[in-house]
Amino acid sequence: MTYADTGFLVSLYLSEATSDEASAIVESLIEPITVTWLTELEFENALHRAVLRSIVTDKGAETILEQYAENRSEGAYLRAIVDVEAMAAEASRLAKALTPTIGTRTLDLLHVASAYLLKCDRFLSFDERQRRAASHCGLAVLPDRSINSSDS
Q1: Complete DSSP assignment for the chain
Q2: CA-wise closest residue to 87 among 36, 144, 47
Q3: How high is the pLDDT of residue 146?
Q4: Domain of 67: which CATH number?
Q5: What is the pTM of this model?
Q6: Over 80: is that where the pLDDT of 150 sits?
Q7: Domain count, the chain
Q8: Are residues 114 and 5 in contact, defined by beta-carbon separation less than 8 angstroms?
Q9: Which domain holds residue 26?
Q10: FRET label pair with 58: which of 33, 67, 85, 92, CA 20 to 30 Å apart?
């Protein structure tokens, strides 16, 4: 199974520097991308923030959400259920192990914990700290780049 963080998902729907790379990765996948309630909530909120920053109009954000829903109904995404208490406990464990050295953010830890608990084997992200956390959990991280100490 392949889990995508929200930033990766956003890059599939908004024109960003990482959009072409994200699209190429998705085209190479055989199975749907695993998402959770957290991914979808954060995705919707990211689009509302894009409206605030004048990156997209209200209508544009609505259209993107409709496209996402259509893509999900067509099987591009698989919404998995993760136990919230287990996710919080795993994120707490990761926070203790990783945040003092790499500065992971809470939402990033929750995504990595979700992917780990769902037994995903791949994690899609452009965020260096999140990529390092996913790698720490034994997930293969895409795009395939070296995991180093720099933060993006």
Answers
A1: -EEE-HHHHHHHHS--TTHHHHHHHHHH-SSPEEE-HHHHHHHHHHHHHHHHTTSS-HHHHHHHHHHHHHHHHTTSEEE----HHHHHHHHHHHHHHHHHHH---HHHHHHHHHHHHTT-SEEE---HHHHHHHHHTT-EEES-----S---
A2: 36
A3: 59
A4: 3.40.50.1010
A5: 0.90
A6: no
A7: 1
A8: no
A9: 2-142
A10: 33
Q: Which two tokens stand for residue 101?
A: 């050295």
For residue 151, being part of any structural domain is answered with no
Tell me, yes or no, whether 74 lies in a domain: yes
At 42-51, the pLDDT tens digits run 999 999 999 9
Please name the amino acid found at residue 83: D
Per residue in 96-114, pLDDT tens?
999 999 999 999 999 999 9
User: What are the structure tokens assigned to 117, written together?
Assistant: 């608990």
Establish if 137 belongs to a structural domain. Answer: yes
How big is the chain, counted in residues? 152
- Yes or no: say if 7 and 38 are a contact pair by the CB < 8 Å rule: no
Q: Identify which of 53, 78, 63 has the alpha carbon closest to the alpha carbon of residue 13.
A: 63
Inside any domain, residue 114: yes
